[in-house]
Request: fold
Amino acid sequence: MGEVNAADLTWILPEIIVAGSAMLLLLWTAILRNDDRWWSVSIALGANATAGIVMALRQPIDGGALEIFSGQLVIDGFSTFFRALFLVVGSLAVLTVAQRFERVPFTETAATLQFSLSGMLLMAGAVDWVTAFIALELMAVPVYVLTAMTRFRRDSVEAAMKYLVLGAFATAVLVYGIAWTYGLTGTTYFPELAERIMTVGASPWMLFAIGLILVGFGFKVAAVPFHAWTPDAYQGAPTPLAAFISVGPKIAAVALLARVVGLGFGFQGPASGPETSVVLSVALAIAIIASATMIVGNLVAISQSNIKRMLGYSSIAHTGYMLVGLAAVTRVEAGTGFVSFDFVGLPSVLYYGLVYAFMNFGAFAVAHVVEYQTGSNEISAFRGLMQRSPVPAAAMAVFMLGLTGIPPLSGFFGKLYILQAAVESDLGWLAILLVVTSVVSAFYYLRVIVQMFMSDPEAEEASDDTPSAGVADLHTAVITATAGATLALGIVGGGIFAWAQSSVATGLF
Reply:
């Protein structure tokens, strides 16, 4: 690990720019008493675009992994992949909130989004428990605020309270697990964890510490049985912000979990040593959690009549799909009597996180349009949407089919790559379960399509509080962009997957 120096700050300029834009937005509204949405949009999007350009220009010369701040953070292909994705998701969120969201102070909302985004950017490069925890909370605390942003709605405040209480409990469990891990290994640095675990071995206390960490992350990624907050939070949160909450924090937590699992347990040791059983135990635990998450998420989604709750349980199922990729581990003979472990599913997790972000965000964006037109979040409100608003209806069909996994949409290739990794790592039973649950998901996804294209619109007019209207310009742009990405990422899926493979290969693992 290198010494801390001022040059290290230049490597986290994207994070500094995004966090600085959040503070600038707060100063803007506090000093000028101005909630001019277009100036705020310009500040947020300008900061995100600048951060993206700086990130693209500022990369390690040799294309490898560069550790900064004495090993607290790393700049590598893995972090660059997710930082780019998070900047896009954050920008889409700002655009979605900018229109048809009049009763909420926009500048404060945009600032909160930017603060959460800065935490997500830090999480992508964290390789030490201290930095990882700070970044995790910097991402999570603003999300609690975003959930309650429509504080004049009882559902929103109730959802935020549930989210906050359960989030605080999960954070306490995670910190306890980190403390146990530090006590057993004497380090908070991820790459050293593997070496120290070789010394500790598969002791009951080591497995206990790992179990606590998995429980903490289970809440953050909404995995069963730690998922209870998800449908309530998505239903209570304002729909445009639920789009961000369902994508950004979830994928950021999966990215950090991938770093912990792949870096902290991807070591080489004796084939029959106790550390081998630690790796296999972690992989098996993730596989079991993934199976329960896929089953519960898909089965419970069938009975939902509210589109936001349905998408909430759907997102739980998709967490299960990504966890299948994390559980895909193969043994590699590294010499006489020695073995190493290759996390072959990591590239598929990166690819699936990318395509899931566009599909799920777009689905919530369309749900917001329908909510604005009808004043309802019920699936029945989608009746005849094709006749009222053809663009959102066509896009929603793309999102539903993509989430189901229908070719040639990107969701199909995302599941295909995960299936290949599961089969390669001898998790055939998990691959079969993924296919079966994906077939089950078709029932509730296709139900939305039937409502839009095969049912007549409701005769009643929308209420005075939510007058019927066409899609706003920014919503049209967001919906069209995410639908286009869902299609395009399927067509060029091989190239994107190659990028994901290169990101893992050049990452610190």
The beta strands are 66-68, 73-75, 268-270, 330-335, 338-342. The radius of gyration is 22 Å. The longest strand covers residues 330-335.
